[in-house]
Every structure is written in structure tokens, then in C-alpha cells.
Amino acid sequence: MRIGWALSGIAAAAITVPAIAALVEKKPPYFASINAKSAFMRTGPSRIYPVSWKYQRQGLPVKIIENYKEKGGGAYWRKIEDPGGTQGWMQANLISDQRTAMVMGDIAELRDSPRFAGKVNWRAQPGVIGRVSKCGNGWCYLDVAGRGGFVEISHLWGVDPTETIE
User: How far is CA 127 from the centre of its chain?
Assistant: First the structure.
């Protein structure tokens, strides 16, 4: 029985280490999202730095602008920028590669196809966050709690205008 638990622990570690390594190797700038219900932004890349902001919005898109690894086997840190332009440091384990985007500006129309002539399926208020996929030619598919559609990239924060996402 103990061998089974040990093997499952080894298997879990084998899955986790590559995921963390992938985050470390990714070269900024790139977009990601907050993966915790509550996450602190700090003024520097260590827990010794004061908290400058507390985020309580899991899935919030952030832009990673710098990577840092504490000396002596410490934690991995990311310098992030939020949709409001605030910058600071957050532990890497609080950030996910899951791509999300936030509706910015006016109400965004979610269409059934990536074109202006597409039928409007839904409308999303500024501040709404959804999972983003299928980006290209100025459009992204945005899924908001199972309701989705194509949105012009110009209405989203969390996607580079020239980016293509499959």
C-alpha cells in the first residue's frame, strides 16, 4: 500500500515539474491568467517585499513581462501587468498558462463566425472575462461560462493584436 502511495506521489511530481519548467522557459512578454481565488502582487520578487495588491478574481488575464528565480532554490516569480496597467510581482504557482481575456471599452458582440456579418449570439459588458481560443485575422473565440462567440480582438485585453491561437 505504501509503495502505491509513493508511486502516485512520484507520478504527480513528474507531471508538476515539467509544467513549472515550461513556465520558467517561456520568454516574456506573454499572456497568462491568475490561477488562484486570492493572489498577492508584491513590490519585488520575494515574500519579503510588501504586498501592493490583492487579487480576488480567478481567471483574470495578466501579461508576464519578466521572469525571476530566487537564489538558493527559492520560488519562481513573474513580473506581471494587469488589465489596468498595474505592475508588480507574483509567485509563478499563482499563474496559469490558461488563456483568458477581458472585454474592454464598449459592450462586445459575440458572433457565430469571425466576421462583422456574423449573427450576434451574445453581448458581453466591459469587465467580463472568458477563455480565449481560435484567434486570428483580428478575431478571437471567447467562451464566457459556456456561452461563446467570436469577438474583435480590439475589444479584448489579454491577446496581442497580431497573435494567432489555435
Answer: 15
The Cα–Cα gap between 29 and 54 comes to 22
Instruction: Name the pTM for this structure.
Output: 0.82
In angstroms, rounded to a whole number, what is the distance separating the alpha carbons of residues 127 and 105?
9
Is residue 112 within 8 Å of residue 126, measured between CB atoms? no
pLDDT at 7: 41
- Identify whether 114 is preceded by a cis peptide bond (ω within 30 of 0): no
Cα(10)–Cα(3) distance, rounded to whole angstroms? 10
Q: Are strands 147-152 and 139-144 parallel, antiparallel or unpaired?
A: antiparallel
Under-50 pLDDT residues of the chain? 1-16, 18, 22-24
